[in-house]
Amino acid sequence: MAFRNHHFYVFCILCVGLSLLSGSIAFDFPIPPGKVCIKNKCSNDSHCNQECKQKGFIKGGNCYSFTEVDYRCCCVKK
Asked: What is the pTM assigned to this prediction?
C-alpha cells in the first residue's frame, strides 16, 4: 500500500512540475534574430513597417507570429 502512495506522490509532483514548465515556455516568446519587437498586436505588415520607420528603424519591420493568435510588430535593428 505504501508503495502505491509513493508512486502517486511522485506522479503528482511530476504533473505539477510539467505544468509549471509548460506555462513558462508558453509565455517566453523568442524574438527573431536582428529584430526588436515594439508592440504586442500587429494588424498588418505595411502598418508595422510604417510604424517602425516612424520610431527610427530605417529598414522598417513586419509582423511575426509567436502563437496562432499572437502577432507582434518587430523592427529590423539599426
From this structure: 0.57
